[in-house]
Amino acid sequence: MKNKKTEDFNPFLNVHQQFDQASAHIIGLKRGLLDFLKFSKQTISFCFPIEMDDGSIKSFHGFRVIHNQILGPGKGGIRFHPEVTELEVRALAALMTWKCALVNVPFGGAKGGVICDPKLLSKSELRRITRRFITELGDNIGPYTDIPAPDLYTNEQTMAWIYDTYNAFHHGNNNLPVVTGKPLNIGGSAGRTEATGLGCFYATQHFLETTRITQIKSLKGARVVIQGLGNVGSVVARLFHKAGAHIIAVSDSQGGIYHNNHQGLDINAVFEYKRQHGTVVGLPGTETVTNENLLLLECDILIPAALGNQIHANNADSVKTKLLIEAANGPVTADADKILSAKNIPVLPDILANAGGVTVSYFEWVQNIENEHWSLSDINQKLKSRMNQAVDEVVHQWQKTGDSSLNNPKETQSQKPKAADVDLRTAALVVAIDRLAKVTLERGIWP
Ligand code: NAD
Questions:
Q1: What is the rounded (10 degree) CA torsion for 344, 348, 263, 409?
Q2: Which residues of 160-193 are buried (b: 16+ CB within 10 A; e: fewer)?
Q3: Rounded CA separation 363/262 (Å)
Q4: pLDDT at 413
Q5: Three-class DSSP category at 442
Q6: Which has more pLDDT, 65 or 422?
Q7: 194 in ligand 1 pocket by Cβ < 6 Å?
Q8: Which residue lies with its CA nearest to atom 29 of ligand 1?
Q9: What separation in angstroms does the CA of 41 have from each of 18, 90, 170, 217?
């Protein structure tokens, strides 16, 4: 039996490694400027008590991190999950900074989280946790300072409570822009719920159309595996299916299902079964597969859309996809990145692939400030154009500095890569860091 490799899953270390690798490709940035762009601006961490439905009292730990506000107010989701850590929140806040810079929205990066297990909490307990967390944050959030959004196990309802709580303490203002991802009739935007999945779909489609990944020419007929069927994964599954892809395996927290016939899974039946049983596992006519093995299935496109650190030093070598799309944040570790790169498996990185959510969050914020409601077609058109432009910029950077002939052995032989260590993630980070560095210097180092 092979020895297991030990890998540090510290997500903060992961994003710092990614930053260092990318910033080495940008000539002439001073050390102090790089440090400013790399480290978080502010971390708030606190503990608060909640009275539970049974009358007991439980303490919860929450975090909110602003990584950088050079381009505008902090922006980032709030997650409720038992495995939330301060380091994870700091890493995710940094990813938000790069993501916003990459899709050119005038926001900085932020993130929040509460250590809790929403599956074990009632709706009223979740409401009390949300209200208390937001009250503790006080004026650290605000429409022009730091704007939360949904993330793992938080949703429109959570965002409505956040708005309502903030509004209770800030009467007389238009407070709608303090949070995005709100329900439609409380200032939410058309298309926000689907935006991350739709942005992921647009980015994948445009990437396939504009690059030389010749083994997959389009989504039509592509065999796709999706880990996670939440907000993001379920939209991705529906859109890829509609575009003619064959979804051969999907999973949720309880496990996965697999059906490798010509058409793949019957997606409508998958969602109906999940609606009735709370999981996809057990859908008649499918094979059950563990979440670990699902990631190793042979396919054309693998889409992790659940948690971080899913593909790591110990399983990356067994991944058998032709293209990996990071719909989730941080699903591929730094060690796995190197292994996938050596296997010529391109990874469309999270800061590009899931940037659709923050893009439409920005549209929601603008609509709230202007008291406007844009149509869904208008929003999706704007989203598509931003995602395509970001893909073009990343691919251009990749072609300039890296190996853009992945998956195509003939081209690899005839056009030697200039820098084999430059993957799509590095290219995306180079675009983002370069943009942030320029804006920081244009604004001038104060005083
Ligand atoms: P969600 O809470 O709606 O869904 C999470 C899904 O993951 C659920 O289907 C759950 O069953 C599944 N899951 C949980 N543990 C799992 C496991 N061990 N194996 C397989 N599946 C598991 O969350 P979401 O909003 O869809 O977010 C998913 C990912 O996308 C997260 O990494 C999040 O940070 C990222 N993301 C979300 C948005 C957004 O707009 N919601 C935007 C950008 C990035």
A1: -20
A2: bbbbbbbbeeeeeeebbbbbbbbeeeebbbbbbb
A3: 40
A4: 34
A5: helix
A6: 65
A7: no
A8: 328
A9: 19, 10, 25, 43
